[in-house]
Specification:
The protein has 17 helices and 3 strands. With about 425 residues, the protein is mainly α. Strands 1-3-2 form a 3-stranded antiparallel sheet.
């Protein structure tokens, strides 16, 4: 990268931050306010060092939150993207310690904010990664927390890599834990795999229980990417690390995803995948998990029944019937009173925030029996899902409904 003049000392750390950075990040590097950072940025733009940049994530946000979007900057001549190329990673590994003080300050501050935001997005039953924060964070609602994580997602992914380069292991695994749900909601499996891989290795080094969780989540991301060999290796490692029943259940769930991703594994492979999913359910039941947790796992079982070849010589139609049975069971566990008006909440639509799992079960039912047969469940799912928090899942549900009903303005715009 060539510039017309050497970078000012206070801009030099930006060489190591691959994605566009917000005024918040710039102010942390500068030890100033965002307003002062914007004034400095204006001078650096005029000098040709920086250019104004768009928000790396353009996922829909409500109008009331869109007005709060920060300003973004990147070094002149640098491309944008969530995944750093090899040269950027090598530069980070080589020069991070040259700017240790400002980068350490940045990592600590952004990790703390990310953990505070993720705390509002984790259903209590799923909070086996980070302790609930004792002090209230700066976010008034789950929507605000989600909006902050969406806007800063690229920065946070790269911040984890900075933390790794600085050997800040606690922040590495905490950022992985905090980013998991947002990366899953946005549909970034490659970034998820890399983020959880770093989190798992850091947590294992620190002897933190998140090691098993991170390895399992990395395995599921690898399976989503169609990389069954890596997925199976990670899932098996998660099983060796798992101690608590919840960790063991998640490891078996990861094994189910990994085996199901192996499209060349034959009928016996899918039978093993189904067996691991059933083991995960049994482990959760044994520890006394609430019904929505069992329902979410049962929805996964329904999806697996729709995957690939079927064991025991069953036909795809027989697999679809079994999938429909599991999907209906999941829907009942997740929402035992579907005639009740959905609660007005912004964290998942059902007690404990399990509206997303309900939608997954509804879509599995539609794939098994057709949209008409799953219409009531899909309609319920569209009402349960928040158009901001659950944009990707809700879009899929509404597309299915529109395929038989036509566009319905009552469901809201996406």
């Amino acid at each position: 990268m060539s510039l017309t003049a050497p970078l000012p000392v206070r801009v030099q750390p930006l060489e190591l931050l691959h994605s566009p950075v917000s005024d918040t990040t710039l102010s942390l590097l500068r030890e100033s306010t965002p307003e002062q950072a914007r004034a400095d940025a204006a001078r650096w733009i005029a000098a040709g060092h920086l250019v104004a940049s768009r928000c790396p994530n353009r996922d829909p946000l409500p109008d009331t939150l869109a007005a709060e979007a920060p300003v973004y900057y990147r070094l002149a001549g640098r491309a944008e993207g969530i995944d750093g190329d090899r040269s950027a990673l090598e530069l980070l590994a080589d020069r991070a310690r040259h700017h240790k003080a400002p980068l350490t300050r940045l990592v600590i501050a952004l990790t703390e904010r990310a953990v505070q935001a993720s705390d509002l997005l984790e259903p209590p039953a799923d909070r086996h990664l980070l302790d609930q924060q004792e002090q209230p964070g700066p976010f008034a609602s789950a929507r605000q927390a989600h909006a902050w994580l969406v806007r800063h997602c690229h920065e946070l992914v790269w911040t984890q890599r900075v933390a790794h380069a600085l050997s800040m292991g606690t922040q590495v695994w905490e950022l992985g834990a905090a980013l998991w749900r947002t990366l899953e909601r946005l549909g970034h499996p490659r970034a998820q795999l890399e983020t959880q891989w770093l989190a798992w290795t850091a947590a294992e080094h620190k002897r933190q229980p998140y090691a098993a969780v991170g390895a399992a989540r990395a395995a599921i991301a690898a399976a989503d990417l169609g990389e069954p060999t890596s997925a199976l290796r990670l899932a098996e490692h998660a099983r060796t690390l798992a101690v608590q029943p919840r960790e063991r259940a998640l490891a078996h769930l990861a094994l189910a995803h990994a085996l199901a991703a192996n499209t060349r594994g034959g009928p016996g492979t899918l039978a093993r995948a189904l067996g691991h999913a059933e083991t995960a359910i049994a482990l959760e039941r044994r520890r006394g998990a609430i019904e929505p947790v069992i329902g979410a796992l049962t929805a996964v079982l329904a999806r697996l029944e729709l995957t690939g070849a079927h064991p025991d010589g069953r036909t795809p139609a027989e697999g679809a019937r079994r999938a429909a049975g599991y999907a209906r069971e999941a829907l009942t566990l997740l929402d035992p009173d579907p005639d009740q008006r959905p609660p007005v909440v912004d964290d998942g639509g059902l007690p404990g925030g399990h509206g997303e799992a309900y939608a997954d079960a509804a879509v599995a039912l539609a794939d098994a029996v057709g949209v008409q047969g799953a219409h009531p469940a899909l309609t319920r799912a569209a009402r349960l899902l928040d158009p901001v928090l659950h944009h990707r899942r809700r879009r899929r549900v509404v597309e299915l409904l529109d395929s038989v009903d036509g566009p319905a303005s009552s469901r809201g715009s996406l």
